[in-house]
Each structure stands twice: as C-alpha cells, then as structure tokens.
Amino acid sequence: MAATGFPSVTVTSARRDRSNDVAALGLTVKSGWASAVLLTRAGGSLRVADSRIVLLSDPTVPEARQPYHAGFGSARAAGAVLSRLLASVRRFGRTSISDLLRQYADAGYRIRGAGIVVGSMVDPRTIGNDHIRIHALEGQLFRTVVVTSLARRRIACSIWRDRDLPGLAGERLRKPERAVRAALVTLKPDGAGGPWRAEQKAAALAAWIVLDGRRAG
Fold it and tell me: Across the strands, what pairs with 36?
C-alpha cells in the first residue's frame, strides 16, 4: 500500500497509433478510490492498455474518503460538515473520472462501454445496523459519482457485484469459469510493478465482459 493508504499506481500504456483500437473500461469502486483497467482487443488479442488507481476523494481532505463516518462505527450527523464533504466527493470524483476519460480520448482510444464492480448494491435505507448502513451509503455515493461521470461523457455502463462476476463472465463470454480465471492471470501487463491485485482483476474482467460478452437475454 502507498503511504496515502491507497494501493500503488500502475500505469502501462505504450505510445502508438490507436485510432483503430476499440476499448472497454473496468472500474472496481472502493471508498474514496477506484481501480481502473482499460482493456483493448487489437489483432485478435486482449491487452491491458492501462491500469491505475483513480482517486475519488480529495487526499487533502481525509474525512472525504469516508464522509458518513464520524468515527469508528459511528455515523456523522446531517448538517453543514456532511454536506461539505459530500459536495467535495462529487466535485473531486467527477473531475478525476473526466480527466481519465480525456486522457484516453487524447490517446485515441474509443471506449465501447464501462463495467463497474462494487461490493454491494443494497439500498442503505433497508439496513438496520448503523455501521453497515454508513458503509452502504458510502458505497452508493462513490458508485453514483462514477456512473454519473461516465454518463456525462455518454459512456454506457453496467454495474455488477464482485461476487457475481465469475458466474456472469462464464455466461456472457461462454467460457468455463476456470478458463476465465486463468486468462485473467495472464492479462497482467508486462513490466507492471507490484502484484496483479484482486481489484485489478475484477476491473479487467468487467471490461472484458463489456468488450466481448454477449448481451443478456
């Protein structure tokens, strides 16, 4: 982990003519950050064109990473402080995603769509436990920031739970789950520093489903 508490950034993107590259973006959304993987298919082969951490909250405002938390297990009360933190997340997250998409567009990638990976999609209003509910509220917040930022750039996205991805991939990609997992291991970018982390694999798989998967129904 980096000193900021976020996983270290890995960027792997060679400069070349990408005018014919069709790409899909996968994003594993966490509280305050997301793991982004840009996947392309060129010449018949899948390739991770880029893998990086995208900050969704301002690192100079530590409370914005978990804005609904007042302390361990306790909820922040509604009011000016919470409103300020939520506004900061929406502003900072929208700018981060917009900057990411602008860099990809400037490099010549045509993004077909995006796959968003989350831990849960439970409506926070249905959760009785205070601690679990504030985690759900934060999950909902950061997920919404990502989705609305993509929509502003007219990039369609699908949202999937992490635990559903392997089964979904088998159905959409028409491959055994075992083969999908093996392929994800080999997708690790050449020369990438550090491990090929679980959130990167999940983002890559979501992008793969968007890029090559058949539609449901």
Answer: 27, 52
The pTM assigned to this predicted structure is 0.88
Is residue 63 one of the residues assigned to a domain? yes
113 three-class SS: strand
Q: Write out the two tokens for 128.
A: 């009785």
Instruction: Give 15's pLDDT tier (boundaries 50, 70, 90).
Output: very low
CA distances from 156 to 2, 5, 66 (A): 32, 30, 27
Q: Supply the CATH number for residue 128's domain.
A: 3.30.420.10
- Structure-block tokens of residue 146: 């990502």
- Of the spans 11-20, 36-45, 67-76, which averages the highest pLDDT? 36-45
- What is the tens place of the pLDDT at every residue in 58-114? 999 999 999 988 876 677 878 999 999 999 999 999 999 999 999 999 999 999 999
Both tokens of 148, joined, read 């609305």
Instruction: Tell me how far the alpha carbon of residue 113 is from its chain's centroid.
Output: 13
In a domain, 15, yes or no: no
Backbone angles phi, psi at 138, to 5 degrees: -70, -40
Strands of 22-29's sheet, edge to edge? Answer: 45-55, 33-42, 22-29, 110-118, 157-161
State how many domains the chain has: 1
Structural domain range at position 66: 22-212
Q: How many C-beta atoms surround the C-beta of residue 93 within 10 A?
A: 27
Q: Residue 181 domain-assigned?
A: yes
Decide if 121 contacts 78 (C-beta within 8 A).
Answer: no
CA 89, 109, 170, 193 dihedral sign is negative
